[in-house]
UniProtKB/TrEMBL annotation:
It comes from Chryseobacterium kimseyorum. PROSITE patterns: HTH_ARAC_FAMILY_1 (PS00041), HTH_ARAC_FAMILY_2 (PS01124). SUPFAM superfamilies: Homeodomain-like. It holds the Pfam family HTH_18. The keyword Transcription applies. Residues 190-288 form the HTH araC/xylS-type domain. Gene3D superfamilies: Homeodomain-like (1.10.10.60). This is AraC family transcriptional regulator.
Amino acid sequence: MQKQTRKGLLFTSDDISIVMHENSYSGNIIKTTFLEEKSSFNLLFLLSPNIHLTTDNFETQFRFNRNQYILHYSVEESHAELWTDSDILRCIQIQINYQYIFNLINPDSSQESAEILKEMTSNQFVFLHQKTPPNITVEMHLILNEIVSYYRKGVMQKLFVEAKVIKLLILIFEQFHDKNMTEDLSKTPLIIKKFVDENYHRNLKIEEISKILGINETKIRKEFKIHFQKTITDYISELRMLKARKLIVNKDLMIKEIAIDCGYEYVQNFTRAFKKKFGVSPEKLRTSSF
């Protein structure tokens, strides 16, 4: 039985720190610990199933399903432990300094701001007094994926992370006040489309889209087809062919290079798809263009 552990600090500044906890084990129980600093807000996004949480200053033990999250305010420094009897434990912790939130919300500016801050500071390892932790929405999944995959460092990373964290907080406030629960369902196909538009050039598969966005594969296929009257596979192929048609006139590019740039691992598959779309092979269309 081999245990693999990855506990990585993705970002840290005076106001925000982000840690990825990712453990896998073929044995019985996986455990990881995390620290909540004094006067800090902690967002914990739980990305694997059947996660239990215990803390040194709270007697209740919590159990979470996959794709749930909690927002907790820690008055004093405290430690908590996550564990699961599943074969993987994966979560993202975003810790935000109290003063940063205070300045961001400015409770002196309005009654609404004062109430939001009061609600945020009065919870006990649950989402603002709700007994059932809320679900991570599709938009939240996208933001988390952008944070994890961002490659720049320094000032650019700081600005990027702060913007994404603020967006997460906006989504959380909206979710708490039930302003966008119904709208979120209708946004799902548009969010899928946005992801595909930005990634169709990769060797993209429905399984990968499902994993990254946290949406069931069947739901992805069904909702995309209903909203756009075409399958997601056909849409990806259409985007690739439109790009291929623009690149084919460039004689400096080999057909193989174009195929890879359009998301095809094998030239034969690219040529077959190209001929089906345009009625001629890439080579013949390139010849006829000059």
